C-alpha cells in the first residue's frame, strides 16, 4: 500500500539539488522573518506527529517550535506511553496516525523502520535520525556554511571520526551539492560499503585524519559512540585514539576553516574544548539552524 504521490524526507536524496537549494534559501527568509517579527504561518491547523524511540534535545525542540511558528502544532509520541512500544505493527501505526495528522517525524534505530512507516503513511514522513542517516541535520549544516561562506560546491569538507549516520548524510550532501568530502575513520569504522561505492565520485577515504583535514574549508566530527552504542564506548575511545579534532588538526586545514558538530559533543574525546569553544567553531549557529532549515522543509512538504 504505497502512497506514491506523497513526498517523504528519509534521506537527502529524496530531494533534487534544485529542491535542496530552494529549501535552504527559504530557510534564510524564514530566519529573517523571525528576526524582523514578520509572521509566516502557512501551516495553520496542521499537526506534526513526532515519534521518538531515542533521546533528543535539538530535534524535538526545533520541530515543535518550528510547527508552532508556522501556525500549526505537534504531538510527541514515545514507545513508553503509546502502543508503539507494545508491539503494534509499524504498518498499522502508520495507517492510523497518518489519517489524523499532516506529517510524521520519526527518530528510531533501523532505517528500514522509517521506510516501512513511509510505505504505509498517507502523509509525508521525515527522518529525524536513524542508525544510517540524519538528513535534517544536513539542512542546518548546509545552511550554516552558506550563511558564513556562501556556495559549498567546490569546497573541501573533512569528516574526521566515525563512519556513522552523520557521515552518511554528509556523503549524500557531497553528491547533491558538488563538494569533496575527505573521510577519515579508523579502519573498522568506515561508512557502509554500499555508501562508499554509491558516492565514490565525491569522496576520499583514509584512515589518516591529518590527510583528511589538510587544506579543508570545513572540519566536521561527531560522537564516537552514537545512541545505541553505549556498551562499546570504552573500546571506541581506544580505537579512535588520534582522531580528536584539536588545535593541531585544525591547523592543517585552511586558516579560515570552520568547525561543525551536530551535538551533543564530548569535549576531550572527538573534539578538544579549545576547538569547539574556539573562534572557528560555529556549532551554536549550526544548532539554531535546525529550526530554520526544518521549517523550510515542513513548508515544502506540507504547505
Ligand atoms: N543533533 C541532534 O540531532 O541533536 P539531538 O539528538 O539533541 O536531537
Ligand atoms: N551519531 C549520533 C548523532 C546524534 C545527533 C547518534 O546517532 O547518536
Q: Estimate nothing, just give the exact number of structural domains.
A: 2
The proportion of strand residues reads: 5-15%
Shape annotation: globular
Helical content, roughly?
A: 40-55%
Identify the strand order in the major beta sheet. Answer: 7-6-5-8-9
Low-confidence stretches: none
What would you report as the Rg, rounded to the nearest angstrom?
Answer: 19 Å
- Calculate the terminal CA-CA distance, rounded to whole Å: 24 Å
Attached small molecules: phosphoric acid mono(formamide)ester, norvaline
The main β sheet shows up as: 5 strands, parallel
* Helix count from the secondary structure assignment: 12
CATH topology-level fold name of the largest domain: Rossmann fold
Following the backbone from N to C, one meets helices and strands in this order, namely HEHEHEHEHEHEHEHEHHEHH
> How many DSSP E strands?
9
Task: Please give a handful of descriptors for the protein shown.
303 residues, alpha/beta, Rossmann fold, 2 domains, 5-stranded parallel beta sheet, 4-stranded parallel beta sheet, globular, binds phosphoric acid mono(formamide)ester, binds norvaline
Amino acid at each position: 500500500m504505497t502512497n506514491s504521490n506523497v513526498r517523504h524526507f528519509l534521506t537527502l536524496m529524496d530531494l533534487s539539488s534544485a529542491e535542496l537549494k530552494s529549501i535552504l534559501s527559504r530557510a534564510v527568509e524564514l530566519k529573517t522573518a523571525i528576526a524582523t517579527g514578520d509572521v509566516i504561518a502557512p501551516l495553520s491547523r496542521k499537526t506534526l506527529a513526532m515519534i521518538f524511540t531515542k533521546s533528543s534535545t535539538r530535534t524535538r525542540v526545533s520541530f515543535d517550535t518550528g510547527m508552532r511558528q508556522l501556525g500549526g502544532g505537534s504531538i510527541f509520541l514515545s514507545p513508553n506511553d503509546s502502543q508503539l512500544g507494545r508491539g503494534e505493527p509499524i504498518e498499522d501505526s502508520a495507517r492510523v496516525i497518518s489519517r489524523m495528522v499532516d506529517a510524521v517525524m520519526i527518530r528510531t534505530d533501523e532505517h528500514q523502520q522509517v521506510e516501512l512507516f513511509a510505505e504505509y503513511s498517507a502523509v509525508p514522513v521525515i527522518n529525524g535520525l536513524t542508525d544510517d542517516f540524519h538528513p535534517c541535520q544536513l539542512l542546518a549544516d548546509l545552511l550554516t556554511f552558506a550563511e558564513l561562506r556562501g556556495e559549498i560546491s567546490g569546497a573541501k569538507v573533512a569528516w574526521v571520526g566515525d563512519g556513522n549516520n552523520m557521515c552518511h548524510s554528509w556523503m549524500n550532501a557531497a553528491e547533491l551539492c558538488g563538494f569533496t568530502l575527505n573521510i577519515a575513520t579508523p579502519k573498522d569504522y568506515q561508512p557502509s560499503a554500499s555508501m562508499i561505492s554509491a558516492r565514490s565520485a565525491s569522496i576520499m577515504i583514509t584512515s589518516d585524519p591529518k590527510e583528511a583535514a589538510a587544506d579543508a574549508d570545513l572540519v566536521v566530527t561527531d560522537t564516537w559512540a552514537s545512541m545505541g552504542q553505549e556498551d562499546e564506548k570504552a573500546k571506541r575511545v581506544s580505537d579512535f585514539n588520534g582522531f580528536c579534532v584539536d588545535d593541531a588538526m585544525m591547523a592543517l586545514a585552511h586558516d579560515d576553516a570552520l568547525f561543525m558538530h551536530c551535538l551533543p559533543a564530548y569535549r576531550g574525546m572527538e573534539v578538544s574544548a579549545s576547538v569547539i569553544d574556539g573562534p572557528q567553531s560555529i556549532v551554536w549557529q549550526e544548532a539554531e539552524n535546525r529550526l530554520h532549515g526544518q521549517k523550510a522543509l515542513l513548508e515544502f512538504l506540507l504547505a
